[in-house]
Write a structure and sequence with these properties.
The complex is a heterodimer. Chain A has helices at about 15-20, 25-40, 80, 125-130, 155, 175-180, 185-200, and strands at about 60-65, 90-95, 105-115, 135, 150. By secondary structure, chain A is of the alpha+beta class. Classes of the chains: A alpha+beta, B mainly alpha.
């Protein structure tokens, strides 16, 4: 299959005198490099200047709290089911009396871990979440020395009460419309199908 | 010889020494900057504004690194190698006229450390000692890669010295002198030797690239085949000396090219406007330095454009192309001089 018309058939022929002199070719090469000398540089001075990212950029996750500061996540496990990379695990627990200010509903995630090395940042967990608890943000996952450090627990994922993480940037009009769309039910429908199949199997 | 003359020469020698080191130091910075610019990058820009303190940082790094002397090496020769390379590199600057002779009434002071009447021969002599630094270093390391690198370096330098010397013979025939100062002062105005001896100039520049072990002739330290070539076993400032000697050689080679072929401190018309003896020296020095810096840039420009030669290609170019060409050039020069009744 021909992809471009830039390919050339190589002919092994005797070089002409001009070619054997090499000097014209060397000068041509030097002309090319000197043109690059004056060209605009491709480098971005990273810490000072940052590369612009898309408005809907999908970066590090956040587990949101509600307005009163209680965790929204109910450990339903839909995100873990939706995750194509199987990066999410969690252990659910029942809310005890007196913990109403910590967890919004009767069930919560005692542990919630995302393996950032497995995660492909597709955003399916965010789409699957019925409680608007997990969001992807424009933050970048920092580098670590150890593999274990990439397994993010609730300490890194849940936003702190005092420093809320703004996720509204990613919620463009298109995204909001998409979420209102009835087709968004496909998550639930798929899940119903999944459980039906599981029941039939057993 | 009065004492003020001797003191003046001492100061001048110290200045040339300092200048060589300073230019070599900043050559490392500009090498990286130019490499970056030619590859659409920015280069070092963290140490100081635009990274101009980078050479200092590099120097400190070199001194702080652990110094390793291999247990199987020959201790004294291992130290002697880089010292010799550095010594010969710094010696060559002595015969180069950096500016026109300072003449003010009776005061007469040549701005050249040693005006010897065989300056060109001195240059060649010192440059050919330079190869011993590399050879001894490669031998003393007791390492196969180092030895291969040293072997390549010596054969390459010997081959290209021949063509270099032959190309200079044509020049010497024309100028009728071996004194570098006289060759420089003969090229007043536009009478640059490159216009009369273009072929000799081209051969000389190519050989200068080979002599300084710069790309495309950097086979002695060819990383893809020989790890680090002759300085594989070297670390810390001993390695620094080798690298530094290369940059000093590059600076001196550029100065020699501009003196022998590109008029040295001469520039057309400029001395019609500048007559004050002090400013004549300053302008002459500026002209000389700008030519030298241009050739340093050329060295780097070529390095970051051309790929490395293969070893057989290198030998082919040296023995079968450059040496015959320079012999032809000598014959042509002789015929030309005969026709124009110069002999």
């Amino acid at each position: 299959m021909q992809l471009t018309n830039r390919s050339k058939v190589v002919v092994k022929k005797e070089m002409t005198l001009m070619e054997r002199l090499y000097l014209p070719a060397i000068l041509a090469g030097m002309w090319i490099t000197i043109k690059h000398f004056l060209r605009k540089k491709a480098t971005i001075n990273y810490p000072e200047v940052k590369r612009p990212i898309a408005q809907v950029y999908r970066g590090m996750h956040v587990l949101k709290r509600d307005e009163k500061g209680a965790e929204r996540c109910t450990a339903c496990g839909l995100c873990a089911v939706a995750c194509p990379a199987e990066a999410i695990t969690m252990i659910a627990e029942e809310r005890k009396a007196g913990e109403e200010n910590l967890y919004r509903e009767e069930k919560y995630a005692a542990t919630y871990e995302i393996n950032m090395l497995r995660c492909i940042f597709c955003g399916d967990c965010e789409e699957a979440c019925p409680k608007e608890a997990i969001f992807l943000t424009d933050r970048i996952v920092p580098s670590e020395f150890l593999r274990n450090d990439f397994v993010y627990g609730k300490d890194k994922l849940v936003e702190s009460v005092s420093q809320r993480v703004d996720v509204s940037v990613r919620q463009t009009k298109e995204v909001a419309n998409f979420k209102k769309d009835n087709k968004q039910q496909h998550n639930i429908n798929d899940l119903k199908q999944f459980f039906k199949n599981a029941l039939i199997k057993h | 010889m009065e004492s003020s003359f001797i003191i003046g020469k001492f100061i001048l020698a110290a200045c040339v020494f300092g200048l060589s080191l300073f230019v070599a130091m900043y050559s490392t910075y500009f090498e990286r900057k130019i490499a970056a610019f030619l590859q659409d990058r920015l280069g070092p820009n963290r140490a100081g504004p635009f990274g101009i303190l980078q050479p200092l940082a590099d120097g400190v790094k070199m001194f702080m690194k652990e110094e390793i002397t291999p247990i199987v090496s020959n201790k004294w020769l291992f130290i002697f190698g880089p010292s010799l390379a550095m010594l010969t590199a710094l010696m060559t600057g002595a015969v180069i006229p950096w500016a026109p002779t300072y003449v003010n009434g009776d005061t007469y002071f040549p701005l050249q450390v040693a005006d010897i009447n065989i300056g060109v021969l001195y240059l060649f002599g010192v440059v050919s000692i330079g190869v011993y630094g590399i050879m001894i270093g490669g031998w003393a390391s007791n390492n196969k890669y180092s030895l291969m690198g040293a072997l390549r370096a010596s054969s390459q330098m010997i081959s290209y010295e021949l063509a270099m010397g032959l190309s200079i013979i044509a020049l010497v025939m024309m100028t009728g002198t071996l004194s570098v100062r006289e060759i420089a002062s003969q090229q007043i105005g536009w009478h640059w030797n490159v216009l009369y001896q273009p072929l000799a100039c081209l051969i000389f520049i190519i050989c200068a690239f080979a002599e300084t072990n710069r790309a495309p002739f950097d086979l002695p330290e060819c990383e893809t085949e020989l790890v680090g070539g002759y300085h594989t076993e070297y670390s810390s400032m001993k390695l620094g000396f080798y690298l530094f000697a290369e940059y000093i050689n590059m600076f001196i080679s550029s100065a020699v090219i501009s003196t022998l072929f590109f008029g040295g401190y001469n520039f057309p018309l400029i001395y019609n406007y500048v007559t004050d003896p002090f400013w004549v020296s300053v302008v002459g020095f500026a002209v000389m330095m700008s030519k030298t810096l241009f050739f340093i840039f050329l060295f780097m420009w070529v390095r970051w454009t051309l790929p490395r030669f293969r070893y057989d290609q290198l030998m082919h170019l040296g023995w079968k192309v450059l040496i015959p060409l320079s012999i032809i050039n000598i014959v042509l020069t002789g015929i030309g001089m005969w026709l124009t009744d110069k002999i």
